[in-house]
Design goal:
By secondary structure, the protein is of the alpha+beta class. It is globular, with a radius of gyration of 18 Å.
């Protein structure tokens, strides 16, 4: 599901009015940082960044992920201007106004619940090289919901970056993940690398894991049918 062009400017104006948080990423370079909506015009939208973009990627395009009325939304846009700005002013990034904003609620609805019959191994590595072994709750091509025992909860902060290893015999995939939300001892992780300018593109080994899980999850439509349904919105 995506917004119409007429809806885009009001949506971004609303985000700027409350300085809504966002995640800015460039999948080719691996750059990820926290940001806040700053201003919007008929042609562009500007963000204040939590850190400098260094080195600046050769591909002058970025993904923006943010929450709108409880739903995770994303858009892809080209760079118009990047300013480092002298302290204490934060760096700013101005992007061309997007032609669409994608509400990935439809993708979330295709999450596969993890049953007892087939459980993949999830291993997380923190920035300080701690290894975490949470229990997977459900999985989609854009993220995973994991849960920790109370005594083992690592108290991860929003936007924390983690290395993720997902294994389900005989397939293994390594992905960068970002903490998108937290509910008690459960964490929703977002996979920035699967977002490309052409849409969602999960690694082949990851798709194989998903296909294996959905075959054992009652009530799940085949993967290609779910993609078709999403593209119709």
């Amino acid at each position: 599901m995506s917004t119409t062009e007429a809806d885009i400017l009001p949506v971004l104006q609303s985000c700027c009015s409350c300085r809504a948080p966002a995640i800015i990423l460039n999948s080719e370079s691996g750059f990820v940082c926290q940001a806040r909506f700053a201003s919007v015009s008929q042609e562009s939208v500007t963000f204040h960044l939590s850190k400098e973009i260094s080195p600046f990627p050769e591909t002058l395009s970025f993904f923006v992920s943010f929450s709108l009325k409880g739903n995770c939304c994303t858009f892809f846009a080209t760079v118009l201007e990047y300013l480092k700005n002298p302290p204490p002013s934060p760096p700013s990034l101005t992007l061309q106004l997007p032609t669409q904003i994608i509400d990935i609620k439809a993708l979330r609805s295709s999450r596969i619940p993890i049953g007892k019959k087939m459980v993949p191994l999830v291993r997380l590595r923190t920035a300080d090289n701690r290894i975490l072994l949470p229990k997977p709750v459900d999985l989609s091509q854009t993220g995973i919901l994991v849960e920790f025992e109370e005594a083992e909860d690592p108290d991860l902060s929003p936007s924390a970056e983690l290395g993720l290893e997902l294994y389900l015999d005989p397939h293994t995939v390594f992905l960068k993940s970002i903490v998108k939300r937290r509910d008690g001892h459960r964490y929703g992780l977002f996979f920035p690398e699967v977002h490309t300018k052409d849409g969602i593109a999960a690694p082949q080994s990851f798709r194989k894991i998903i296909e294996s899980l959905e075959c054992n999850a009652p009530g799940q439509a085949p993967l290609n049918q779910r993609h078709q349904k999403i593209s119709e919105h």
